[in-house]
UniProtKB/TrEMBL annotation:
PROSITE patterns: GST_CTER (PS50405), GST_NTER (PS50404). This is glutathione transferase. Its EC number is 2.5.1.18. It is an enzyme of class 2 (transferase).
Amino acid sequence: MKPITVWLTPPGPNPWKVVVIIKELGIPFEIHSFKFEDVKKPPFIDINPNGRVPAIVDPNTGLTLWESGAIIQYLIEEYDKEHKLSYDTLREKHLLNQWLHFQMSGQGPYYGQCAWFNVLHTEKIPSAINRYKGEIHRLLGVLNTALTGKIWLVGDKCTFADLAFLPWNEQLQALLDVPREEVLAAYPNVLAWHTRLRERESWGKVLEMREGLMAEQALEWNGMPKGVNNMKEYEELLARGKDA
């Protein structure tokens, strides 16, 4: 099997949803890491006209695909024939897709907006910050209820649905300015679930890869170059580079 190429910029959580599932399934892959300022430029814009990471190129099937949820569904359908991270029964198949859609439509967008308004946006807008912090807590409440009396979201094993939530929940401290364990203390079922996910060997290896790629580009925890605190400063840095 030829390796799948994963195109990504290292800071954001979405690419790592794909990578951790690839690692879990034992699929050969290689990472094409590039800078955030190049997401709207060739060659990446030729792969994903939306200019968002991740995207994959699979030489085994000739398919180029973007949108992390679509990539995950493809990887499961094409490469999880033994159902290591999935089920082949009707009920479980659709419940897994339900949770993946919830992650894509709920967790990702709301956590992302909180990251923008609370971390990256130059102007601090309390109403926006409070709204998206509140949505994070609402979503954690949904997960906490769903996990009552359960180890995993669906069935009796870790699946792609569980793993899809892992990278964004890993960012809770950065988003809310509160230690992750302190945030999750109010959601004990989520805390136990997230702890189980964090302890998986695949995630440890993913974090090592991410840290290496972040260091390679000299990036801070928030994805900005060292010494840059928000998007305005980042844009000014890029402008100075063009003028130099």
